[in-house]
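Customer escalation, tier 2.

The customer says the design service returned an amino acid string that "doesn't look like it belongs to this structure." They asked us to rerun it and document both sides in this ticket. The original structure tokens are below, unchanged.
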């Protein structure tokens, strides 16, 4: 029997955060992006530990069309993944929304929603937009924005969407559900990607693109802001990658390859990438490996890894592909990105513990801009 159609409604009013929420130490640390010698802060943002590792944006719109039944319904989907040697299962419940043709239809979150979430997080990393508050022992974080500003931010990074498409994405992220279970099948967490989405000071849903909106982030994002487990990364570069898998792998390198230098190799297997990203969509391992090679080549072109990466295929009887091992070296640009992220993380920890004043932290930030010799040293080192 088909599921009962949920009542469609406009975004509800939610209370604006207090003025103090925009100046708490947690949000100021989240916004304290540390510029690199070759990149200003406009190109930087934060990637979230665990939350960004959860495979939730992997079903394409084309695939959804083939999965829906006649009523426009989609089944829940489950998949396993690993994060920092711990096993998890994620269950995704699709969102049922009213589309531009006034038809009720279900969607999983997909690539467009991923871009919108990343853009919202970038806006939150700017002063006066992001907020963090604790009320009745509950932590909340989020961002205020306009549809016009969000559309401009996405277009600036190579993603051009209409107002309607952006509103639909916000609706999907608000009405879907992500349930994450840990080992032993205990319920770890269950919520929408954006638990609260509301237009502020306007009654109409989309008519005024410059009306102010507010969203609250998923609690795992809030917890990461609280615990300082996010990592600075080159958001501008990642948003401009053509492949969704390239974006996934770049973020993973920033989180996991914290000891990157010209001597250390990064090791990862084809089976790990397939399991944890869910973005390899080939009909067989051979097609998957071609897609993976295309991703690695894009990382090479964009100076994230060196061209001398190695893919060693493991074969079984009759040449059947069992797995493949990938070894790669980080490019100088990515080494700088990761080292600056490490430094920024250490500064934030010291500030939170009260060992570094804001003035001292700003002084260290200015020193980074002057480290021309550091950049030249590694440019020369990469040639040897």
């Amino acid at each position: 029997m088909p599921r009962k159609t949920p009542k469609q409604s406009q975004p509800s009013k939610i209370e604006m955060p207090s003025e103090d929420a925009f100046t708490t130490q947690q949000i100021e640390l989240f916004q304290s992006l540390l510029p690199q010698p070759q990149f200003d802060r406009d190109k930087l943002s934060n990637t979230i530990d665990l939350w960004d590792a959860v495979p939730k944006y992997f079903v394409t719109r084309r695939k959804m069309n083939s999965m829906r039944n006649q009523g426009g319904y989609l089944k829940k989907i489950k998949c396993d993944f690993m994060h920092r040697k711990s096993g998890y299962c994620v269950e995704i419940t699709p969102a049922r929304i009213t589309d531009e043709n006034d038809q009720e239809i279900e969607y999983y979150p997909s690539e467009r929603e991923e871009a919108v979430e990343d853009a919202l997080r970038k806006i939150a990393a700017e002063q006066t937009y992001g907020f963090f508050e604790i009320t009745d022992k509950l932590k909340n974080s989020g961002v205020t924005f306009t549809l016009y500003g969000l559309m401009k931010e996405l277009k600036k990074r190579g993603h051009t969407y209409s107002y309607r498409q952006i509103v639909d994405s916000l609706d999907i992220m608000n009405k879907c559900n992500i349930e994450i279970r840990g080992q032993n099948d205990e319920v770890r967490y269950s919520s929408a990607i954006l638990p609260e989405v509301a237009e502020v000071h306007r009654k109409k849903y989309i008519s005024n693109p410059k009306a102010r909106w507010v969203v609250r982030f998923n609690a795992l994002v809030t917890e990461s802001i609280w615990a300082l487990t996010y990592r600075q990364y080159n958001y501008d570069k990642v948003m401009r990658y053509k492949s969704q898998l390239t974006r996934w792998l770049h973020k993973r390198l920033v989180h996991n390859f914290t000891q990157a230098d010209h001597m250390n190799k990064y090791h990862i297997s084809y089976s790990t990438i397939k399991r944890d990203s869910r973005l390899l969509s080939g009909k067989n391992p051979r097609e998957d490996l071609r897609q993976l090679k295309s991703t690695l080549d894009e990382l090479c072109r964009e100076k994230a890894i060196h061209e001398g990466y190695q893919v060693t295929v493991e074969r079984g009887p009759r040449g059947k592909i069992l797995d493949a091992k990938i070894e790669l070296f980080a490019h100088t640009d990515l080494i700088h990105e990761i080292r600056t992220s490490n430094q920024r993380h250490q500064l934030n920890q010291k500030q939170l513990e009260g060992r570094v004043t804001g003035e001292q932290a700003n002084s260290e930030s200015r020193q980074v801009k002057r480290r021309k010799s550091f950049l030249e040293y590694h440019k020369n080192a990469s040639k040897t």
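Tier 2 assessment: The sequence is consistent with the input. The CA atoms of residues 124 and 273 lie 29 Å apart. The radius of gyration is 22 Å. Sent an explanation to the customer and offered a walkthrough call.
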